[in-house]
Amino acid sequence: MKLPSPIFWQKSSASERENALARPALADSASVKKAVSLILSEVRSEGDVAICRLTEKFDQVRLTHLKLEQNQITEIASTTPANVKTAIDLAYDNIHRFHAAQFPKDIKIETQPGVLCEQKHSALEKVGLYIPGGTAPLPSTVLMLGVSAQVAGCDRKILCTPPSSEGRIAAEILYAAQKCGITEVFMCGGAQAIAGMAYGTQSIPKVDKIFGPGNSFVTEAKQQVSQQAFGAAIDMPAGPSEVLVLADKHANQAFVAADLLSQAEHGSDSQAILVCDDGEWTLSVQAEINKQLAMLNRKSIAEKAMNNSRFIVTDDIEQAIDVTNLYAAEHLIIQTKDAEHIGNKVKNAGSIFVGPYSPESAGDYASGTNHVLPTYGFARNYSSLGLLDFMRRYTVQTISQQGLVNISSAIVNLAMAEGLDAHANAVSIRLKQDANNV
Amino acid sequence: MKLPSPIFWQKSSASERENALARPALADSASVKKAVSLILSEVRSEGDVAICRLTEKFDQVRLTHLKLEQNQITEIASTTPANVKTAIDLAYDNIHRFHAAQFPKDIKIETQPGVLCEQKHSALEKVGLYIPGGTAPLPSTVLMLGVSAQVAGCDRKILCTPPSSEGRIAAEILYAAQKCGITEVFMCGGAQAIAGMAYGTQSIPKVDKIFGPGNSFVTEAKQQVSQQAFGAAIDMPAGPSEVLVLADKHANQAFVAADLLSQAEHGSDSQAILVCDDGEWTLSVQAEINKQLAMLNRKSIAEKAMNNSRFIVTDDIEQAIDVTNLYAAEHLIIQTKDAEHIGNKVKNAGSIFVGPYSPESAGDYASGTNHVLPTYGFARNYSSLGLLDFMRRYTVQTISQQGLVNISSAIVNLAMAEGLDAHANAVSIRLKQDANNV
């Protein structure tokens, strides 16, 4: 295919630079918004009946029940191919190790004598894990969400995933769910699954927070329920997946081409960007992309995505780093000399892959990091999914009589400055009482 | 006033219980939504011009510039009354200590040999701090937001607050801002301030995330910009402020009454709830409330709020704890025998105040904890504001050649199970290359 021509950063105008780093425009979603809003209200008022009706409509299967029985989970999970079981086992172990290392410590300090302040953590009680369906099962997403919820210690982990037209859930999904201690699995997908978890139905428990990726209906449903006081919190806003590879001529063209293509095969709206300080070398990567592209199963998807790819050539590596920070990529791969050093200069990214042997697919599956990441520029203001997203923080203060005396005039003076005398009174009444007792 | 009659929990039906813990209904906000949406689009297209026009309309003042000069900040701040300065100094120190203690540690582990995974933290670059105006200045909110941003190390801290009709900002606000190292102060309030910070204007920088409380227009504006990819992230959803006091007959009625009233004076939609295992004692708190109410400056506001207060009587303290967890209060005050022990049994709350000398106003101003907290039941799934809200987490993986070999079959098998052969190829091409080089 004819890949987009390299963009020479130094020679580009401000608007050309902006265009070079622009995300693909999102389709105007007025119709999706309306359709989702209708699905949500149907599920909210009718519960399981609406979900079964919508499942028949969208997934072409008539279900008599939504929940998988425990023995069904066990039975179907056991049919997972041995090599996939082994792969899930290894990925599970690494993801578990990295997320267990994130377990937060409570904080307890006296800010001044007699004023004890604590920050405590508790796991969210009920979490909803959404696993998309489609052409292939996604056991890796089950691990990313399920291990986190398991390590956090969430009481109930509700998994929703659309059934096949035969009314089945893939063995790999259930094997991964079992590893994560997930016992509540519902055959339910799309906006109706998000509604079921946000509001609760006869069979699906209402959850506190909903996690996981999905199509435009799922994404819109998550946004809508997160705006409703009777809805649920969500993990983060979503957008098309993306990679930026920051390379220099010391990198292996075949590795870089493979990394760009592994992003491109995700979907035709995926964005793959190469930033390099060498124009000649950039062209040789393009040749390598065409060579590899021909062999891919998902060639047509990858080709569409590569149409929107960008090849940015900078004057030097410092400029390449600037461009990288500007873009704030979901996935950032650094294949340069001194990659670790360069990595320390980049902050705005969801997950960074350092050096020639750190392909994005390692993090997608098995290195241990979470593959649920902020896309679409949100890496500037949102975090990669981590253990803390499955927990909440709250504070506790325990103040002694003397402690209150020590901070009383600060409280009273600030309360009076803010015109809140009942706030001041809550302190002075306590001091007065003490004076009376002396 | 005639306070609401006690509700006996054990004798209440399921729907009576639900009503007892129901939050005040939020006004139907279709008109607010529309008005805010219009303001946002005006500011987005016209910038400062729109903000000045809206400021004239809503704040009755015609401004020639939005930004306060550094010498103005210094000059006005210096006029803060000495007792308020001292109060702000003490509060600043305590808040600083507690938030500095929250500074996160980066994590670095080998999930298996050659697979190094890191979780790193960086401060958000540009944060927007919104400080409401109204009848009195709120220096305490400047401290809660400003200290956090300062400790996190945010590059730029943009503060917006509405000017008085004389075009001035209160000295206390500016004194607190100075302490927090805030140099960019804009005379700008309401939805137009949120728009200014979310989109950026000629004078206001575009920020990554917007923090702070506000009226229904500000809240709606924050929600709307948080849904826009070109907008900004926000701290948390908002609702009317609330307190739940969990008490037994060992508590001091006057203290409990004062705490309920200090919540009630916030606004007529504030909710104050007493949960106690003793009906007689509950009535004596009501008598004390009426006594104290008579003396308050904001009596009429507090009276309206107390009309919607709830007095719940439980059979025993265990049931009182259950009710408390169900309500998930923004502020929870525990005044019982063994208050610390009881406190450990409660998880769903924004901030907990333990024992007779820990009034809510201590946390509102000076104990050191943050007073920006999840209300309206969001304490089930959102955290109290903390240092981490001013930072982002991201992950880094650095995999050695042998490390990649170790996890390669897991990646390849999972990628193939998910139908993503370009993902598999990104690994196999690296292994093949190595084999060729041997």
TrEMBL record, chains A, B:
Domain of life, source organism: Bacteria
Cofactor: binding details: Binds 1 zinc ion per subunit.
This protein's pathway: Amino-acid biosynthesis; L-histidine biosynthesis; L-histidine from 5-phospho-alpha-D-ribose 1-diphosphate: step 9/9
Gene3D superfamilies: 1.20.5.1300, Nitrogenase molybdenum iron protein domain
Enzyme class, spelled out: oxidoreductase
HAMAP family named among the record's database cross-references: HisD (MF_01024)
PANTHER family to which the protein is assigned, alphabetical: HISTIDINE BIOSYNTHESIS TRIFUNCTIONAL PROTEIN, HISTIDINOL DEHYDROGENASE HDH
Protein name, entry field: Histidinol dehydrogenase
Organism: Glaciecola petra
Gene behind the chain: hisD
